[in-house]
Amino acid sequence: MDTTSGPAKEPSLGVLGGMGPLAGAALAMRIVELTEAARDQEHISVILVNDPHVPDRSTACTAGGETPLPAMLHGIDILVRAGVDCVVVPCNTAHLWFDQLQAACPRPILHIVDAVIHDLQRHGIRDGTVGILGTPATLRLGLYQDRLRAAGYQPIIPDPAEAQALLVPSIAAVKSNHVDEAYPLAARAIELLRQRGAGSIVLGCTELPLAVPHARRPGLGIVLTDSIDALALQAIEWVGRRTEACGA
Amino acid sequence: MDTTSGPAKEPSLGVLGGMGPLAGAALAMRIVELTEAARDQEHISVILVNDPHVPDRSTACTAGGETPLPAMLHGIDILVRAGVDCVVVPCNTAHLWFDQLQAACPRPILHIVDAVIHDLQRHGIRDGTVGILGTPATLRLGLYQDRLRAAGYQPIIPDPAEAQALLVPSIAAVKSNHVDEAYPLAARAIELLRQRGAGSIVLGCTELPLAVPHARRPGLGIVLTDSIDALALQAIEWVGRRTEACGA
Prior knowledge:
The structure is a homodimer.
Chain A: E1 12-17, H1 21-33, E2 45-50, H2 57-62, H3 69-81, E3 86-88, H4 98-104, E4 109-110, H5 112-122, E5 128-133, H6 136-140, H7 145-150, E6 153-156, H8 160-175, H9 179-195, E7 200-203, H10 208-211, E8 223-226, H11 227-245
Parallel strand pairs in A: 1-2, 1-3, 3-4, 5-6, 5-7, 7-8
Helix pairs in contact in A: 1-11, 5-11, 8-9
């Protein structure tokens, strides 16, 4: 039986999750919550591979740990064979392997940094200083900086000691289901970048939107763009354009 | 390439979701939140097929609508080919087709009613009157009643007019992302069963735990068992037993 044919004819999204697993599931949830739909059948078809055994992306980048690439390619293979039309990867650090993933994937992968830039524009922010929070690997290897500069922004990042002291434990707290402990650390990192001139902040690790829940954001006094919601909205828009182009 | 072999060797769970899509994503989220884990790699591997285009289960049962069975079997086929060891279906009404799904699936499917009974026992409730809330199809076709009686409980259900007036619009509100409108309707249905002697209530439609969020439950003054959380816990326990049996 060919699993690429089946009852579902609508465009289908593949989510390569598990990195971490709460972020993968949260993205699947936000795709539903952010879709305008009056009944089940108007929602978007999603397949989520939420495999948390993918080797740690940060350790691979910064400490010579096992590469996550084969496990990620295995997940992509499951998604493609299941018939998805487009792939999203709710893990910022994983995007350090974006070119290798896209080269091996016959479907488009939507880049999380493009989604975040689109979300900044959605908030009316078209230039100025943007603070980036993320894993030390993401920050050090410049995942966001070049694309933000090319789009007309001035990126700033925490210094390495702050990233170790605030962001690493905040992200680890989310991964171990201690979301409440994650908040004050992330909030402090946001405040430090605000004091240095950031007019908006990118939550550029998919654990950070879980550390800083929507209800607490208005109290922080700065525009936050959330890499989970930004990716969900980018995916929903992709499906909308595809559906329109196919005359569905 | 054989997608059933791959880097992940740990037991893997398949979730046949989309019915509705918020319930499917919520189950994936609750599996993560209810797992004891200190880092990503200690979480459970999950593949979620969240296809909301499966024909409506209730309409098929009560109004001669298109059968959802082929679409559900297509989803099971995707999960099995992706290498899952066990399947859960976060939709109570879909369990009216349980025997056909299990007959076509070479992996065990955990029955949602067994999960709920196990959860009642986890709450220390081993007998007495249990109120069931669900879709009219679930209630009328007795999905819960026989299994609850066999386990030593006395099931009671809303009358058909109450189910139409309270449960149908509450469930529809969740499916259209109007979760706040769903709560008062579900709370009224709970209160009516409490007045008729129910000592506990089964939220026996996977939209209802979303209609009655955890934070509002203590105010209702009755033990609620939640078919999403019950299924998540059953799945986590299954993986734990399987991991132990394999000496992992």
